[in-house]
Specification:
It contains 20 helices and 26 strands. By secondary structure, it is an alpha+beta fold.
Length: 703
C-alpha cells in the first residue's frame, strides 16, 4: 500500500480519481492499493521566537540576534487535525512507501518533507514529478515514480531558504522596530523591492518637466517633424519661413525587417501581460493559473522556463489547433513550427505554461471570468509562438525646406505572420472593452512612394508643443520586470537565477508590501506610502540592495546541486545578521522621529503584554505603547476563514477574558456552522488564536 500526499485537497481528489482510490475516509481517499491524503499548504512551520525561550517574548535589543542552535517546528495555525491524520496514516502497518505528490518544485518539496520529518516517518519516499494534472500525465507520472532521495538537495535548498528568511526577517524586523519604536517589517526580498518602488517615486517627484517645441510640415499627404527646439520663438521662426513653400526629398531609406514570434509564457511573463492587458495583479494571475492547473486545463504555472522539451514537439500541431479552434474569435487552422519553442537546455524543473487537450470539451461558461481570460491568453500565446515570423519594411525619408531638415518614418507590413492571430485576440479584447495595453496602436503607417530630389508643395507648417516625460511609476508589469533583473549586473554571467525572488514568490511579495502598508495601489500604479519611504530611509544598504537576495538565490542553487553544504550557507546568514545587529545600536539621529506616534482611538481594554491601554483604529486594536507590538488585526485570515468580523465587542471580551464563545463559526472546508470557544494565544510575536471545542459557553460573554 502506498500513501500519496498531495499539497491540496483538490489535487488529491484528481489523483485519487486516476488511481482508483474512490473510498472516502477521514482526510483521505483509499482504494486500488493507494491511500491519497493531502496537506492544506504548509501544515508545519518554523516556530516563533518565543518557543526558543521566554526572553524572546519581548522585543528588546539585548535579546538580539536570535540564532537557533536547533530548529523547532510546530503545526501551522489550526491545521493540526489534518497533520494528525497524516501521522496516523504514515504509521499504518500496511503502508510501505510514501509518495510525495506535492507541487513539483522547491516549496512543494518543503511542504511534504516538513510533515514527513515532523511525524518522524522513516518509510521510503517516492516522488511524483509532473507538469500537468491531465489523467494521462498523472498515470505516466505514477508509472515513473522517482526515488525521493534524488530530491534531498532540493529539500535542503528549500529548508535553507526558509530558515535564512526567518533569521534575517525576524532579527531585522525586531531590530529596526525597536530602534524606531514602530513595527517595521523587513525582509530579504521585500525590502529591496520596496527600495526600487521608493527610488522610482523619488525620481518622479524630483523630475521637472521641460517644454520643447517641434516644427512640423505637412505636404502631399506626408507629415514630417523637425528638430526639437527649446523655445517657442525658435520654432515659430522655422514655421514662418517654411509655411507655403516647397520641400525637397533629400533621402529615402528602406529596410526589410522581421519580428520573431514571442516565446511561450513562464509565470512572470504571463503575470506581466495579464497586468498590462487585463489589469490583473500578479497574485490574481497566479491564483487563476493555479486553478486552471488543478482543473487540468493548463500545465504547472510556477515555472521560469519559456520553452518545451524535444519529446513534446510531435504532439504540438494537434494541441495548437485543438485549443485554437476552441477560441470564440479565431476558428482558423494555425501553422505550427515546433522547433521555435523547443530547447531542452532551457527547461529545468518544468516547461513553459501550456493549455492542455482538456480544452477540447470545455464549456467556456463554466469558468470564472478570470480563469477564462488567462486560459485564452495561454492558447493565444501558444498559437503565436509556433507561428510564422512577422515581416515588414521600414521607411525613413528626410526632407529639406527653407534650409531646415524634417524626418518622416513609416512601416509597411509584408507578411502578418504570428501577428495576425494576435490581432484577432486584441480585437476581441477591444470589443469587450478589456484591452488596457498603453502600447496598442502606436505603429507608424506606410509612407507614400518618394524619390530623391523630388519636390513637394505646398508646405503647411505648424509647431507642436510637448514636454519631457517623467520616469514611469511602477505598474505590476514593470515591477515584475524590474524584480526579474534587479542586481543581475552584479551576478556572474553563468548564474542560473538572478533578480529578486522567484516566479512563484514575487506576487506574494507585492501583496505583502500592500498589506503591511508600505505600498498603495492607485489604479494600476504601485506607489510607496510615507511609512514605506521612511523605512527605506533608515535601512542599511546591505538589507535594501537587490545584491543580497541575488547572492542568496545563487548560493541556494549551489545547495540544490549539492555543491554547497547547508551549514556553510547558514553560517554566512548568521554572520550577516550578527553584523547588522552590532552595527545598529541606536536610531540615526536625523531619522529618529520619522515614525509618528500611534494615533489613539477608543480604549477597548488592557494589553495582556504590558498593561497599557489597547485602542481601536481603522485596521484593528493596538497597544498604545510604541514599545509594545501587541495587535489584533480586523482583517486577520483567522476571522475571515470563520466568516466573522473582529469588532469592538469581541476584542474587548478577548482582552478581558482571554476567550470568547461563538455558536456559529463557519467551517472553511464544509461551509457548515459549528460552536467553539476562540482562545487568545499570544507568544509575544504575532497574535494567534486557538479553538477550544470542549469549553462550552459557561456564562462568560459570547459573540
Amino acid at each position: 500500500m502506498k500513501l500519496v500526499i498531495a499539497e491540496k485537497p483538490s489535487v488529491a481528489k484528481s489523483l485519487a480519481g486516476v488511481l482508483g482510490a474512490t473510498e472516502r475516509g477521514e482526510g483521505c481517499f483509499s482504494g486500488g492499493g493507494y491511500i491519497v491524503a493531502w496537506c492544506y499548504g504548509h501544515l508545519v512551520e518554523l516556530a516563533r521566537p518565543a518557543e526558543y525561550g521566554d526572553q524572546y517574548k519581548r522585543w528588546a535589543y539585548d535579546t538580539l540576534p536570535i540564532l537557533p542552535d536547533t530548529w523547532r517546528y510546530l503545526p501551522s495555525g489550526d491545521k493540526k487535525q489534518q497533520l494528525d491524520v497524516l501521522r496516523a496514516l504514515m504509521k499504518q502497518g500496511d503502508v510501505d512507501a510514501i509518495v510525495n505528490a506535492c507541487d513539483a518544485g522547491r516549496e512543494g518539496e518543503l511542504i511534504f518533507r516538513l510533515v514527513y520529518e515532523y511525524c518522524k516517518c522513516s518509510k521510503p519516499i517516492q516522488r511524483l514529478w509532473i507538469s500537468s494534472m491531465e489523467d494521462a500525465a498523472i498515470r505516466e507520472g505514477f508509472d515513473k515514480l522517482r526515488d525521493g532521495a534524488a530530491y534531498e538537495n532540493l529539500y535542503h535548498a528549500a529548508l535553507c531558504r526558509a530558515q535564512a528568511d526567518w533569521v534575517a526577517g525576524i532579527n531585522a524586523t525586531r531590530l529596526f522596530s525597536i530602534l524606531y519604536e514602530s513595527t517595521l517589517n523587513v525582509g530579504r526580498v521585500q525590502s529591496p523591492t520596496l527600495a526600487m518602488i521608493v527610488a522610482r517615486e523619488a525620481a518622479v517627484q524630483d523630475f521637472t518637466a521641460e517644454p520643447f517645441y517641434t516644427p512640423v510640415i505637412e505636404v502631399e499627404g506626408l507629415t514630417a517633424a523637425g528638430e526639437k527646439l527649446a523655445t517657442p520663438k525658435e520654432a515659430e521662426n522655422v514655421r514662418a519661413v517654411c509655411d507655403g513653400g516647397s520641400a525637397t526629398v533629400l533621402s529615402v531609406e528602406k529596410k526589410g525587417k522581421s519580428e520573431a514570434p514571442p516565446k511561450l509564457y513562464d509565470l512572470t511573463s504571463l503575470q506581466r501581460d495579464a497586468n498590462r492587458l487585463l489589469g490583473y495583479t500578479a497574485q490574481q494571475t497566479l491564483d487563476y493559473a493555479q486553478a486552471l492547473y488543478e482543473k487540468k486545463l493548463a500545465t504547472y504555472p510556477r515555472t521560469d522556463s519559456r520553452f518545451l522539451t524535444g519529446d513534446m514537439a510531435a504532439g504540438l500541431p494537434e494541441l495548437v489547433n485543438l485549443t485554437a479552434m476552441r477560441l470564440p474569435f479565431a476558428k482558423v487552422p494555425v501553422p505550427v513550427d515546433a522547433a521555435q519553442v523547443v530547447n531542452d537546455a532551457k527547461v529545468s524543473d518544468h516547461h513553459a505554461i501550456l493549455p492542455t487537450s482538456m480544452v477540447r470539451g470545455l464549456d467556456w461558461d463554466t469558468l470564472p471570468t478570470g480563469e477564462r481570460n488567462i486560459l485564452i491568453m495561454l492558447i493565444v500565446r501558444l498559437a503565436c509562438a509556433v507561428g510564422e515570423t512577422h515581416a515588414f519594411e521600414t521607411a525613413a525619408t528626410v526632407l529639406e525646406c527653407s534650409g531646415f531638415q524634417f524626418t518622416a518614418k513609416g512601416k509597411t507590413v509584408l507578411r502578418e505572420g504570428w501577428k495576425a492571430f494576435d490581432a484577432l485576440y486584441r480585437a476581441a479584447l477591444k470589443k469587450k472593452g478589456e484591452d488596457s495595453d498603453p502600447e496598442d496602436g502606436q505603429d507608424d503607417g506606410a509612407l507614400p512612394e518618394l524619390a530623391e530630389g523630388q519636390v513637394l508643395s505646398p508646405v503647411a507648417a505648424s509647431v507642436r508643443e510637448g514636454k519631457t516625460s517623467p520616469p514611469k511609476r511602477y505598474t505590476e508589469d514593470l515591477l515584475l520586470a524590474a524584480m526579474e533583473t534587479a542586481g543581475a549586473e552584479d551576478m556572474p554571467d553563468d548564474a542560473e537565477r538572478k533578480g529578486l525572488g522567484t516566479p512563484a514568490t514575487r506576487a506574494g511579495i507585492i501583496e505583502k508590501l500592500v498589506r503591511t502598508g508600505f505600498v498603495e495601489r492607485k489604479k494600476k500604479l504601485l506607489v510607496p506610502t510615507q511609512k514605506g519611504i521612511n523605512l527605506i530611509a533608515v535601512l542599511p544598504e546591505e538589507i535594501k540592495s537587490p545584491l543580497l537576495t541575488a547572492e542568496w538565490e545563487q548560493k541556494l542553487k549551489q545547495v540544490e546541486r549539492g555543491e554547497l553544504p547547508c551549514e556553510v550557507f547558514m553560517d554566512g546568514i548568521a554572520a550577516l545578521v550578527k553584523g547588522f545587529v552590532s552595527a545598529h545600536t541606536a536610531p540615526l539621529p536625523a531619522y529618529a522621529s520619522l515614525f509618528a506616534e500611534r494615533p489613539k482611538g477608543a480604549v477597548v481594554g488592557k494589553c495582556p503584554r504590558c498593561g497599557t491601554d489597547v485602542t481601536e483604529s481603522g485596521k484593528g486594536f493596538f497597544c498604545s505603547s510604541r514599545a509594545c507590538r501587541f495587535a489584533l488585526w480586523k482583517d486577520a485570515r483567522f476571522w475571515q476563514a470563520k466568516d466573522k468580523k473582529l469588532d469592538k465587542k469581541i476584542a474587548a471580551t478577548l482582552l478581558s477574558e482571554g476567550r470568547v464563545f461563538f455558536s456559529d463559526l463557519k467551517s472553511g472546508r464544509t461551509g457548515k456552522k459549528y460552536a467553539a470557544t476562540v482562545v487568545l494565544a499570544d507568544d509575544g510575536g504575532k497574535v494567534n488564536f486557538k479553538l477550544d471545542f470542549e469549553q462550552k459557553n459557561d456564562g462568560r460573554k459570547s459573540a
